[in-house]
Design a protein that fits this description.
- It is a single chain.
- It contains four helices and nine strands.
- By secondary structure, the protein is α+β, with helices and mostly antiparallel strands.
- It has one domain (4-139): Aminopeptidase.
- It has a seven-stranded mixed sheet with strand order 1-3-4-5-6-9-7, sandwiched between helices. The chain has a two-stranded antiparallel ribbon with strand order 2-8.
- β5, α3 (115-131) and β6 (135-141) form a beta-alpha-beta unit.
- The longest helix is centred in the middle third of the chain and has 17 residues, at 115-131.
């Protein structure tokens, strides 16, 4: 695909909302998501996100949404988004806070080329630089053992802290099975 060094990282704006929604949906829902390994099509139907949720994330004064694309050719239209993620600074009584990592998506046809690892590393550096936080955390559906293993290979640990999936709230999708739950993963962000 492309070398991670060629990726262009930017902070999302309101103009990016439609492309972000399309990217996240394509990476997790429906048949198109099966082109990559991050699909949740066997676990959930319905939406993964919506324009309002993405707009809220972009407008959050304690967070930012990162877009990832290839460099555009001079005079060409903007390059399509390859990946994205959301970072949110959350308070922590034990220190300078924690960075929450979410809305992570890589285009299904670009998965497996190191883009996801580059985005995660960029997010960790950004959280340390911007907020001086000492750790990053996220929530992952426990049934996603392959995804959890991917994060573990990058230094994240399972906490055993679980929260139920929000059954009945269609904003998060339509579960295809009754046993979905989230587990919190964390990673220290040493200097």
């Amino acid at each position: 695909m492309t070398a991670a060094a060629e990726l262009v990282f930017a902070t999302a704006t309101e103009a990016d909302v439609p492309a972000l929604v399309a990217l996240v949906e394509s990476a997790y829902r429906g048949e198109s998501s099966r082109a990559g390994w991050t699909t949740e099509a066997d676990l959930l139907d319905g939406q993964r996100t919506d324009p309002e949720g993405v707009r809220d994330a972009i407008g959050d004064p304690d967070g930012l949404v990162v877009t990832v694309a290839l460099p555009k050719d001079t005079g060409a239209a903007p390059a399509p988004l390859l990946a994205c993620c959301q970072l949110q600074h959350r308070p922590d009584p034990r220190g300078p806070g924690v960075a929450y990592f979410g809305m992570f998506a890589v285009s299904p046809t670009a998965q497996g080329a190191g883009i996801g690892a580059a985005v995660l590393a960029h997010a960790e550096r950004t959280a340390r630089t911007v907020w001086q936080v000492e750790r990053m955390e996220m929530q992952v559906i426990t049934a996603r053992t392959d995804l959890i293993a991917w994060y573990e290979r990058r230094g994240y640990t399972r906490t055993g802290e679980r929260t139920p999936f929000p059954y009945g709230d269609e904003r998060f999708g339509l579960p295809r099975r009754p046993d979905l739950e989230f587990e919190r993963l964390v990673k220290p962000l040493g200097g």
